[in-house]
Amino acid sequence: MTPRRPTGAGAFPKAVEIPAPEPPDPDALYAALDLGTNSCRMLIAQPKGSGFHVVDSFSKSVQLGTGLERTGRLSRSSMARTVQALRICQQKLKRNKVRRMRLVTTEACRRADNAAEFIRQVRHETGLTLEIIQPEEEARLAVISCAPLVSTRTEQLLVVDIGGGSTELVWIDVSSVPARDRARTIMRLHSGFHPPESPFPAAKVVDWISVPLGVATLRDQFSDVADDSARFALMSWFFEENLADFAPYHGIQERERFQIVGTSGTVTTVAASHLGLKRYDRSKVDGLRMTSDQIDRVIRRYLDLGPAGRRRDPRIGEDRHALIMSGSAILQALLRVWPTDRLSVADRGLREGLLYAQMSADGVLEDGPF
């Protein structure tokens, strides 16, 4: 018996329509939240050219890591302060209808035994989901945020991010990259410190380190030293000791082709003090280049003021006076051991790096000069 031909046999198959990928929305808002050992900071921004325009922001000292050195846990009062700050962030995110965001936390939550409990509390009380990022990603994001400040003359770059609980240092070699492309190749490190081989010249990460000492943790380790000057000297020496395994430490670099970029509240506070600003002005601080002599003069003045004088100094600020000497000890150690007499001041860091990384991944940034 001849088999019956099925209905529709021989007809042309229908084409399967695959919807085109949705183009990135150039008007979308992005958010980046950085919850550190000392501060909670957030930016909401819109892509603009090869950068972004800040729409809203938030910054508050929450001292999440208070007591962490002693107990290994986040205290109830620290968590309560932080949740209050995160509620404000949640309101800002909702008001601006932000859909693309990364909300990260760093050293305090990496080290605390009850970090998972705290993150559950935050999600329950605010609806926000915090992500604990590892030191390499924290360092990488700090690096790409500082890319626009890299000089075209720079061949060896050291980016230093002094946080509340840790300090990240990344040494980058851009000597093989054409001068005009150096900032752009550093920006490409958002995908990793060791990208796949490329036929084009690329920024190379020579070495990086995350030192588990920041302005809060270093201060806490030497809180039992009564004398102000002795405490400062001990903090600076101790931080330098923790850099012994950082490979470029031993190399001799050409001074004129070497650049240090420092990003932190310490660096921007020292810059504001140098400029004599009684009211902080980011436009005057971000990108400023200070000599090591200028930095030393500011630090000596801090020591001369003593704890009471620093507390009253409007250029230091209420949130910073208790941490400025531990941060200055870190800064002085860095300038003592590396071959440069200048430091580039960056009022930017993890939040800006998070924004650049998200926008680059979505393809909404123009490939032009910064």
Overall description:
The protein has 2 domains: 30-133, Nucleotidyltransferase, domain 5, CATH 3.30.420.40; 136-351, Nucleotidyltransferase, domain 5, CATH 3.30.420. The protein has 370 residues and is an alpha/beta fold. It has helices at residues 68-71, 76-95, 107-111, 115-126, 135-145, 182-187, 215-221, 228-241, 265-275, 282-285, 292-312, 324-337, 350-362; strands at 30-35, 39-48, 51-61, 100-105, 131-132, 156-162, 167-173, 204-211, 258-263, 289-291, 342-346. The N and C termini lie far apart (77 Å). Helices cover 38% and strands 19% of the residues. The protein has 13 helices and 11 strands. The protein is globular. A 6-stranded mixed β-sheet has the order 8-7-6-9-11-10, with helices on both faces. The chain has a 5-stranded mixed β-sheet with strand order 3-2-1-4-5.
Keywords:
370 residues, alpha/beta, Nucleotidyltransferase, domain 5, 2 domains, six-stranded mixed sheet, 13 helices, globular
Domain module count: 2
What is the C-alpha radius of gyration, as a whole number of Å? 24 Å
The structure class reads alpha/beta
Counted by DSSP, the helix tally is 13
Overall pLDDT: 87
Number of strands: 11
CATH topology of the largest domain: Nucleotidyltransferase, domain 5
Q: Looking at this structure, what is the CATH superfamily of the largest domain?
A: Exopolyphosphatase. Domain 2
Give a short overview.
By secondary structure, the protein is an alpha/beta fold. It is 38% helix and 19% strand.
Please render the helix and strand layout as text.
Layout: E1 30-35, E2 39-48, E3 51-61, H1 68-71, H2 76-95, E4 100-105, H3 107-111, H4 115-126, E5 131-132, H5 135-145, E6 156-162, E7 167-173, H6 182-187, E8 204-211, H7 215-221, H8 228-241, E9 258-263, H9 265-275, H10 282-285, E10 289-291, H11 292-312, H12 324-337, E11 342-346, H13 350-362
Parallel strand pairs: 1-4, 4-5, 6-9, 9-11
Antiparallel strand pairs: 1-2, 2-3, 6-7, 7-8, 10-11
